[in-house]
Amino acid sequence: MKQLLLLGLFLIPNLLFSQITVHKQAERKVSDFSVVAEKTVASVYCDNADFVAVKTTARLFVEDVERVTGKQPELVSSKSRLGQYTIIIGTVEKNQLINELVKSKKLDVEQLRNQWESYIIKTIDNPFPGVKQALVIAGSDRRGASYGAFSISEAIGVSPWYWWADVPVQKSPTISIEPISFTSKSPSVKYRGIFINDEDWGLKPWSSNNYEKNLGDIGPKTYAQVCELLLRLKGNMVAPAMHSCTGAFYSHPESKVVADQYGIIITTSHCEPLLFNNAAKSEWDSKRDGEWNYLKNKNVILKKMDDRVREASPYENIYTVAMRGVHDSGLRGNLTDKEKVDVLTQVMGDQREVLKKYLKKPATEIPQIFVPYKETMDVYELGLQIPDDVSLIWVDDNYGYMKRLSSPDEQKRSGGAGVYYHFSYLGGPHDYLWLNTTPPVLMYEELTKAYKTGANRYWLVNVGDIKPSELGMQIFFDLAWDVNRFDYTSINQHQSQFLARTFGAKYEKNFQDILDNYYRLAWSRKPEFMGWEREWDAPKYRNILNTDFSFQNYNDAQQRLADYKRISELSDNISKELPENIRPAFYELLAYPVKGSYQMNRKFLLAQLNSELVKDNKLSNANWAAKESKVAFDSINKLTWKYNTMLNGKWNGMMALSPGWCAKYQDMPKVKLAEGVESYPVAIEPQKSKSKLEGCTVIDLKQIKNKVAKNGHTLQIIEGVGYDWYALKLGEAIEQTVDPQNLDGTRVEYEFTGVTADSVTVHVYSLPFWALHKGKSTRFGISVDGQPVFVSQSDHKEYSEPWKDRVLQNGVVTVAKFPVNKALPMHSLTLTCGDPGMIIQRVVIDWGGLKKTYVGPSVSLLQ
């Protein structure tokens, strides 16, 4: 059996692939480097003078070899103890043997000079007297050496997720590696990490009551596992958990030491200035410390930040400058616009003096970020001047859509830019803390858009509790390592390929099927949003409501239930075929999210059906629907109980239907049971009689009659987003803006027929993008039969009612009415480009027969 890790797909630019090829002994070639043979085990050399993080990696690498083979290599630091086969792990800067090989011209490391986090993996014959062969892993720096070593670990069968997702190690009694000479590239994005957030209902109770029971908090033991995972994923930074329920990161002094032992950088959230967490009472207590108001309490606040930098300065950090209010709130005080600008200007000036004092270097050489999140974006737009060397970290709107990116002038800044993105969110209009349903293609669209406008300095993703965002994290770090590796097709297949490598290649098509439908169904409404309530909103939204999915029209609700049922059953069938030892990983990575989503939808939709049947006085059917809704509610609890109790309770406390602070979706909706009436099932499968389109049609976006691309625009159909899981993209966001009213410009044309009225109403559903940057907008045009163009412009304001609806349904609907000549046998629809990058996901044309549904009838009804 041969295992291949196609590293070059994401490590080497301009090459198709490069391979680390691992053999079992029976397939071993004479030229192979022998890691473990029947009678020999390679030694692992790490220089005592090298970085602590490299020593940590060498220790973990030795453990990885033992995990696979059952035999432990000897970890040595003396040349005299080298084995016949030796693995050398170290940095060019500090590893004596690597430097000897360079001097003897057996190893060329010029490509590593002055590089960031790159490495060489090379087999060398007869490197030293008594050593037959060496496998050298040389890093340009401490993390480069770690990434090289863990690339070998993954190739021999140790997944980065062996601990966090319980992916079994691929056992083999012997290991050999074909001769290799490989040099990695530096990562596309310099700083790549996660923000552990909203940990109140997952990571915190799991760590406090289970993994770090003695400490009773998220502490160094947990962070050791986090940091190891990040290194294995080729990440390099973590923003620690910072809610008030958790002890502040620096309240456990060992935690920062642990991070450094793994070479992981500490960064912080947008509301933690200079690493100071004012949400933790141990850090900031208003009774003790006064008001968090820089105008009134500058000396105390500045002293807190000064103390923190003094404590943290021996370690590698990225410092957030400026400030917000306490935790996730705005600046304190009833400040005018000018006062806000003046205060933050003063804060940043004072902070940079503190940094210079303790880091003993100019502020321009210290990594700093400014995060224009929520109200700080408004202050920035008011004219707040950010020092040129400080990186601007652009944020999404908490629902996956970048609010703005660097303008051409901002792209010239020496500090560059970055991104703060969300897989998990606590806030209005509704949180999504339970499952990760952010589609890879949406993430790719927004992050590559950011990258193309200069956001290559810093990528941070909010992953909540880490679990169950494993698949999202894997793709995030792979993308951050090499943006150019991916396109729309490969990004959409990435997770199914990962699952196929983990659970079996024969399931890859099934995995793609499950994932496509899992993300598609959550696209129109996430499982957490199915209660139709909102948080921190008007009273009418504070309790569970019936959904807008229809049981009467177009099988809107029925098809949703049928699709969820199918992929849930497909997941069950795969699980039954898997070996027992791999089923927990499958449950964590795929089965629980899929089955949980199905039952959450079933719970709400059948409760809705109950209320509708009660109104129709169909009480037997209503009773059945009520009971089935309760069965679904109980099923979710059983699924979650299984997650928390399997593997002897390893993850006990981790998985919960996180209620945020006021969500209701986790509750059982109200249903009505008629006493003395027997239950009788009602058909909830899709019915042909409800699938007819009369007096309207849906445009199949793939059936393009004509397309014209001008001004260098790119027109394409992309799969992996949209209500029907493919969509039309009108140009790339960075391409030239044009007049959308020009019917001779960039455009896509479709045909439709069957009109029996004198006018048609066109409903165009687009993705709820924000303008790329100042001076841009979100315009595209709509025309029927060559008539004057109706221009759609969906520029929205965050937290407005239209924006809330748009992010909850991942769509903006533009409605335009056109007169038509019904005598014509065929009509044309033209979509024109204005601001490139707009994505059209559904077009419905109505001439009097369109029935009410949630987001319009599906294109599948055309079949």
Automatic annotation (TrEMBL):
Gene3D superfamilies: 1.20.58.2150, 2.60.120.1620, Chitobiase/beta-hexosaminidase domain 2-like, Glycosyl hydrolase family 115. GO terms for biological process: carbohydrate metabolic process. Residues 1-18 form the signal peptide. The keyword Nucleotidyltransferase does not apply. It holds the Pfam family Glyco_hydro_115. Keywords: Hydrolase, Signal. Residues 695-857 form the Gylcosyl hydrolase 115 C-terminal domain. GO terms for molecular function: hydrolase activity. Transmembrane segments: none annotated. PANTHER family: GYLCOSYL HYDROLASE 115 C-TERMINAL DOMAIN-CONTAINING PROTEIN, PTHR37842. This is Glycosyl hydrolase family 67 N-terminus. It comes from Paludibacter jiangxiensis.
